[in-house]
Amino acid sequence: xxxxxxxxxxxxxxxxxxxxxxxxxxxxxxxxxxxxxxxxxxxxxxxxxxxxxxxxxxxxxxxxxxxxxxxxxxxxxxxxxxxxxxxxxxxxxxxxxxxxxxxxxxxxxxxxxxxxxxxxxxxxxxxxxxxxxxxxxxxxxxxxxxxxxxxxxxxxxxxxxxxxxxxxxxxxxxxxxxxxxxxxxxxxxxxxxxxxxxxxxxxxxxxxxxxxxxxxxxxxxxxxxxxxxxxxxxxxxxxxxxxxxxxxxxxxxxxxxxxxxxxxxxxxxxxxxxxxxxxxxxxxxxxxxxxxxxxxxxxxxxxxxxxxxxxxxxxxxxxxxxxxxxxxxxxxxxxxxxxxxxxxxxxxxxxxxxxxxxxxxxxxxxxxxxxxxxxxxxxxxxxxxxxxxxxxxxxxxxxxxxxxxxxxxxxxxxxxxxxxxxxxxxxxxxxxxxxxxxxxxxxxxxxxxxxxxxxxxxxxxxxxxxxxxxxxxxxxxxxxxxxxxxxxxxx
Length: 491
Prior knowledge:
The protein is of the alpha/beta class. The chain has 15 helices and 20 strands. The protein folds into three domains: about 1-55, no CATH class; about 65-90 and about 375-485, Aspartate Aminotransferase, domain 1; about 95-370, Type I PLP-dependent aspartate aminotransferase-like (Major domain) (Aspartate Aminotransferase, domain 2, 3-Layer(aba) Sandwich), CATH 3.40.640.10. The protein has helices at about 80-85, 95-105, 120-130, 145-160, 185, 190-195, 215, 225-240, 270-280, 315-320, 330-340, 355-370, 375-390, 430-435, 470-485; strands at about 5-10, 10-15, 25, 60-65, 65-70, 75-80, 135-140, 170-175, 205-210, 245-250, 255, 265, 285-290, 310-315, 325-330, 400-405, 410, 445, 445-450, 460.
């Protein structure tokens, strides 16, 4: 391993190694360490199996509002809410109080196979009412990946209940998608970098169609209607290729998050895809783990066009990071089929529907509703998009700025005319993230790669909390502009 570059900062150094492109060591005093003789850098932890064992992570002592305080005394503005999770920011006293009250009851956990609980039922009621009763039941889990596993299994059981010999075993999802890290959720994802080590272990009955990405896919002069019609035909052709009677479900994100960088569906797309699914008797599943629960300006992303799914996953903004909680929402037709057949979902998790999780999520949703935060998401989101376009759209390496609500992505390109991406080894998005989080910028952004073809293509995501102000938006955009200009200087 050869050291090829050093970027000095007052309290931070970045080391970029020649192999592989993602080998990045972030070092902040007093944890300054060099690579060992084995080629593996020491870390600040002797016991935790960190995501990157060669990296020293800044340590966080506390958080309040939009800011995190590091052990070395810096205040870092969280402009991506972690992974689009902390929708109410940090240290919300209402949510903390609700958690404490549930803890004091003595029942933070109850086995869902034995007991029911009022706070769990109250959360489910809150969520169903948030759909205007267009969905019917809620299945609570501990993570978005678990929610997607439940969606996959329930969609299969839906057809199995009707016919144990059903041929409906195939799933269709999209390229440049991400649905979770457990094996089933990873199988239905279209994220090559995260799937590569595990391909031999993944389901073989998953098939992909293209994403809905007008920046890279729209033809010259192609209207939204023509673009959607082309996508619908592609999905219909895939059904016909597999045999319509063999497909259990189609899975899509209304706004693609980590895998594509905040690309919203073209108007009319969701309804067209749903129509194809129902034409062939398959279920229509929406993954709103990252883009849902108010992130795009409506409580559920599908409510922007009122395209109700058969099954829907949600997570991040559900509990706002105060507890690990996710959910699968289930339509009336699926609930009624299961009720009239076996009456039970053949699936279960130890830590599902925990009262302390539900208490936190219920209070998060009440704060969101009672403080009119969806209105703020729409207002500040529109302003964020306006300022990003005003200050960064003319940058020669900013190829596309897209998003909805407080969920915005910037895609970076080597050539704006041809839309040629940077090489993976250039690690543009990662460099932007590392510089942004360092002094004097002290702000988080969420980096991503593979935007173009699963390997090439860089983007960052901005997903600040729902409590931000116009002043906060100005700070975010000013910081992003400074960082992008430093990493990608304008000639």
